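Write out this protein's structure.
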Amino acid sequence: MNISDALPTSKESTASERLAALIADYKPLPGIPDEFIGPDGRPRDYWLRYLNSLTDLGADDIGRRFATADRHIHDSGVSYRSYGDTRERTWPLSHLPLLIEANEWREIAAGIEQRAELMERVVADIYGEGALIAAGDLPAAAVTGSADFLHPLHGVTPPGGRFLHFYAADLGRGPDGRWWVVGDRAQAPSGAGYALANRLVLSRAFPALYRDMNVERLAPFFQAFRYGLTSLAERSDPRICLWTPGPLNETYFEQAYLARYLGFILVEGGDLTVRDGKVHVRTIAGLKRADVIWRRIDGDFADPLELNSQSRLGVAGLVEAVREGGVVLANALGSGVLEAPAMMSFMPKLCRKLLGEELRLPNIATWWCGQQKERASVIADFDDLAIGGAFGNPVLRFPQNQPVIAGLLNADEKARLIDAIGERGIDYVGQEVVNLSTTPVWNDDRLTPRPFVLRVYAARTENGWTIMPGGFCRISDRADARAVSMGGGVQSADVWVLADKPVEMITLLPSNETARIRRLMGNLPSRAADNLFWLGRYLERVEATLRLIRCLAGRMINTDAETGTTAWTVSKVIGLLVAWHAAPKSAASNPLALCAVALHSEENYGSALSLVRDARRAASVIRERLSADTWRLIGELDQMLGVDQKPLLSEAEAYDRADLALRAIAALSGLAQENMNRGAGWRLFDIGRRVERAINSCRFARQFAGPTAPSDDLEVLLDLADSQITYRSRYLMGVGLSTVRDMVMLDPFNPRSVAFQLERLDDHLQNLPVLSDDGMPEKPRRQIVKLVAEVTTAVAAELDTDKILSFEKRLLDLAEAVAARYFLQGPHSARADRWSGLA
């Protein structure tokens, strides 16, 4: 029948006509199940209800809402990397959700709950009694052949007795219309954070539609997961960490996103250390115990002492801490053995053995070639199967973890692969080739069917398994896709599980009136403190460079630019930009060209663009601690100064570009002052800004306030210190050396002066945590007290360049002392071994 025959009739036919046009050319792929069109060839009712509501909005409104969704993704910095990427990619979100009605979802949830429990029992037996192997139900080689089987963990029962706390399965609808499991994720399942981000974007773009479709909320699932992890700890107020491989990981954004959403501490391996059988976080206040760690690194990399000795991501001694029950890991080390495709061939039998029932969600049919009968069967039906690595190993020269469809290989490739299977069948599996079902995507104002994979999550709680009502959907851009990976050409979609009745609005905000009140967050990890400090320094360096560029452009615009003193002053500004590596010396003869390089160069590490990207890298490591507005402004600065900017045509244009970027810097400063909580993180960020500003002010003063400085030099110094207005209001006569020096260096009431920065540094260092309570000031505090006293008692008339240089050097020493005390990483990691209450 024609799809349009299923459309509702109405007196107002405009919306129906729009819907008819939208789906007019929609044709499911032959023999492939489709989410929009049911087995009877008619559109499913809930899809029609959704599309009717969507088209009621009108084409213009739909376009605006799609643009709003795209803008929100960009502004929020939702991103990912494909393997090997050096730059992040913007998250590719489909504008249409995947819809699943309530009855079907209940079947999926029951199947995932059963499979999660099955996986738990299998892995518990593998690392425990070993009854399945002893009985012949699971070949030993199918376990020990996997690199994810960690022998040092054999016989170790994790605290609480559970191995799995977060499990996921990849699903596809098979040719019979049923949902099939195409892969298990038990090591460190990814994608849940992206599912959350997808939901936030689409629910904001279409709030009424989201509400009217009775979409199940995600917050209760994450709330249950968080409570489940909390219940595993020995203490009533545990410290829970999310362990990330670091900012270069493909899914680092979602790790930071989940840490912020759940209130966990985002840590890397270098942030953790083992003492007395327990794991601690290195913080600026010393070592603080980590009770529960949700890991996102592979188990093999977790401990360089007992596992992979080449790992730089792990924590030495972690396996021993697990043996002693000193930390809860979610998931337990070694659980990745369940992900091996070889294991999938045994799951139907193991389900009957361990649970006494059939799998509710069948596997994709899999034959492990480590068994003689199965190997012969795979070779006999070779052209009809997909051949994959049994343990994630590559198939000959083909990409790792991607099965190859045997029927598509040439004769030579087939022969080589068959020989390889015959020689070492243990490394291969044969799997049934099942085309994925399709779901509608929006394509040029039309709906188009595209294959997809749905990842569904299960979380262990005190009351058993809880299933996320939705999931992480990946949609291929190829109509004939038989496998989907999150590389180029793949979109993600929100997953809407449609309830039978209106859904209560639930958030993760605590509603219990008896909850303990907190006004400050937990102790700041040293790595986060390090990056906050450098974020402040980089942003201040950007500002100083932009002020020099704006000053240079402004002087070149001046009609008196050729006078002797002005030319001499301009040469000093150029000299500073060259000395700061904002531009090469070869550009010094052409001020306009020098401005362009200093603004937009990627090669010169002191250029404004390079410094902004340094700031962005520092910010990316602490993304969970920054607001969306802060991240967006840093991204906008990057765009403003990007190398794709049009060439500068005049000094006035250079002035305007520098001025516009300075406004963004001012906005960032305002956000930091007005929006950041006044905890240790804000203090370290502001210390970075203040110490860098004081250092730069000293450099400017030495350059432009020498003993014979002309008025042009002093005017430039006031510009660079942003003190022109204050100076004019205070001194009616022209500029004078002593008065300018006093305002820029010694005036405690001028927020741009060195004295002002030192007072703020003194306050910050006085309020940061100390490692001992003996009353003795630590080195940074001693240094700042001396420096404040000296600057406070200095007299402008006696302030020569040598004295200013001594202040500058002592500020640099102060920055080093702050780093040595608070940033307990790299060669200085031993400093984190100092104990401070181990709370």
